[in-house]
Amino acid sequence: MEPPGSPRWWESAIVYCLDVAIFDDSDGDGVGDIAGLRRRLDYLQELGVTCLWLLPLYASPHRDDGYDVTDHCAIDPRIGTLEDFDALVRDCDGRGLRIVLDLVVNHTSDEHPWFLAARQAPDSPHGRYYVWSDEPQAEPESIVFPGEVDGNWAYDDAAQRYFLHRYYEFQPDLDHGNPAVRTEMERIIAFWLGHGVSGFRVDSASFVIEQTGWGRRMDDPHEIFRRWRSFAEELRSDVLFVGEAHFPPAEQMPFFGDGDEFHGLFHLHLNNCAWLALARRSARSLQSALVDVSAPPPGCQWFTFLRSHDELTFEKLAEDEREDVLCELAPEPEMQIYGRGTRLRTASLLGHDPLRMRLALSLLLSLPGTPVLLYGDEIGIEEDLSLPGRLSVRVPMRWSSGWNAGFSSARETRLVRPVRESGRRDASVWEQGRDADSLLHWTQAALAARRAVGIEGGTAVPLETGDDAVFAHRWDGRGGSLVATHNLDREARDVVLDLGADARTSEVFADRRYDVVSGDTRALTLGPYGFRWFLLEGVGGDGGAATGSRPRRARASR
User: Fold this and answer.
1) Is 51 contained in some domain?
2) Is pLDDT above 80 for 30?
3) Are 530 and 492 in contact (CB under 8 A)?
4) Per the domain annotation, does 264 fall within a domain?
């Protein structure tokens, strides 16, 4: 039975990414679980998010933090059962929260029954699920984890052949040129839609396309995504597919297709340009990003973010730009990874400066697209650089100042991941919940402001400010138009905006109380790292005039 709801609900969604195993441990065994997540749903609802993106929760030997899957239709027994998951879906439904699962389609674990069978007979039906070669191939040349992985082909003693792996050697790549593999993926999609999820974030979508070049070739590899989406929409018309495609914007656009492939793609270019702007305290990169990137087809949308659960890569920047970002925000070698990115979380990248942290989130929330928040960024939790590689940002959630930061009552030796001491007194939900001026309360206000603006879809254009340190843009979408200004510098700024002779504005959100601006908003003051959002009144966006009830003017706590 098809559930009710808007078929394009993601256009107004606020997504919260979390890993169940490190979010909350309800039974004291040292591993977060579904029951722990269920008891935190009130917190997430009050925070103001509307969709939970759950990182892999499938059966796995956990050599790659759950991305090495042994059964896509089984829950990791450490975190609960399928019945527990069904209860979670019901609880989320009752709160208006949707669930999106991470769909790991590029590879499996080498302990997956498919691969165990394939090793014994590479030419068998299961053997043809994977990409084999009699000799290691020169292509592909690029290495995903330089310094950790030597190549993309590994020799299997049992099969006496080489298999392709774009990630670790224990993660053999599936051959999506094989129709049987695509059918298996449809079975997995149908299984989870049957258990009430609203959609999927498709891991490594670009590699799925790439594998058809070494396995069974397809005239049009993008047919894979069109078929999955068509299949899923027959089961649930409001299903969401978000793709991870690590390409420049022009090369990402084909993954939208003609509006018939992915509904959403992660806006990697805008992310990189935002961090460059924050590092250089210059608006130029953001202005260029808005001009250079095409609008997605109707019904599709960019997904925007500050920080992901992986390393934060700056590979979309030029070499000198990347060096500037790393030197300014992550200068020490242990803070960097793979020569292209950082292992730090958002708070550390911004020096735990509360003004800059609020500024960065305001940037994210005032741009078109679906914003994605990484768990814990609402309280500014830190990374743990003693953990290897990308795991540094995947630290347990901090709920209190007590034992194991409230994550678990287990002994330290039993924890799925260590809970390090924080150098910050307020680094927990409980402590920040008691402080009206905390980052947590500010984030709640910011998310409420985003929802109250009520604009969906559309595009943004940069506005001239006459000051390189001030980024201003206008977002026109269904429901109205928003103008947002952001001071990227530590010094206050006065700027002049030209919004047109007929423009009228009302301020809806700001970092502090300013003198009330009414009328056409010519002269504007911004405090250090300050920001101000204005609705344009009587000026049509994509959906007509910005009329109707106006959001209450909000002030962000300092």
Assistant:
1) yes
2) yes
3) yes
4) yes
Q: Which residues partner with 509 through β-bridges? A: 533, 554
Give the model's pLDDT for residue 519: 56
Clarify whether residues 482 and 511 are in a common domain. Answer: yes
Tally of structural domains, the chain: 3
Q: Report yes or no: 241 and 203 within 8 Å, Cβ to Cβ.
A: no
Is the pLDDT score of 520 beyond 70? Answer: no
Q: Is the predicted pLDDT of residue 552 greater than 50, yes or no? A: no
Torsion angle, alpha carbons of 504, 510, 515, 519, to 10: 0
Q: How far is CA 276 from CA 190, 191, 316, 368, 543, in A?
A: 41, 41, 11, 19, 32
Nearest to 307 by CA among 371, 258, 250, 362: 371
CATH of residue 473's domain is 2.60.40.1180
Active site residue 244: yes
Ranking 174-178, 341-345, 368-372, 420-424 by mean pLDDT, the lowest is 420-424
Q: Are 210 and 242 members of one domain?
A: yes
504: exposed, middle or buried (C-beta count within 10 Å: 0-12, 13-18, 19+)?
A: middle
- The secondary structure of 328-387 as a DSSP string is HH--SGGGEETTTEE---HHHHTTT-HHHHHHHHHHHHHSSSEEEEETTTTTTPPP-TTS
CATH of the domain at 135: 3.90.400.10
**Catalytic residue flag (residue 203):** yes
Under 8 Å between Cβ of 91 and 46: no
CA-based nearest residue to 204, from 168, 161, 160: 168
Measured in whole angstroms, the distance separating CA 120 from the mean position of its chain's CA atoms is 38
- Residue at 350 is within a domain: yes
> Over the Cα atoms of the chain, what is R_g?
24
- Determine which one of 25, 64, 68, 203 is catalytic: 203
Range(s) of the domain holding residue 122: 113-164
Q: In three state form, how does the secondary structure of 68-135 look?
A: CCCEEEEECCCCCCHHHHHHHHHHHHHHCCEEEEEEECCECCCCCHHHHHHHHCCCCCCHHHECEECC
Lowest mean pLDDT of 214-228, 246-260, 276-290, name the range. 214-228
Give dist(CA 382, CA 411) in Å, integer.
Answer: 22
Residues 415 and 438 in one domain: yes
| Catalytic residue from among 175, 210, 244, 261 | 244
Nearest C-alpha neighbor of 287 from the set 527, 465, 446: 465
pLDDT in tens, 342-389: 999 999 999 999 999 999 999 999 999 999 999 999 999 999 999 999
pLDDT in tens, 319-329: 999 999 999 99
Average model confidence (pLDDT) for the chain?
A: 92
Residue that has been written with the tokens 């925070």 in this structure: 47
Per residue in 42-93, pLDDT (tens digit) is: 999 999 999 999 999 999 999 999 999 999 999 999 999 999 999 999 999 9
Q: Exposure string (b/e) for 531-553, b if CB count within 10 Å is 16 or more?
A: bbbbbbbebebbbeebeeeebee
Asked whether 63 and 75 are in contact (CB, 8 A), the reply is no
* 500 & 433 share domain: no
One DSSP character per residue, 307-333 reads --SS-EE-TTS-HHHHHHHHHHH--SG
Tell me how crowded residue 138 is: count the other CB atoms within 10 A of its CB.
9
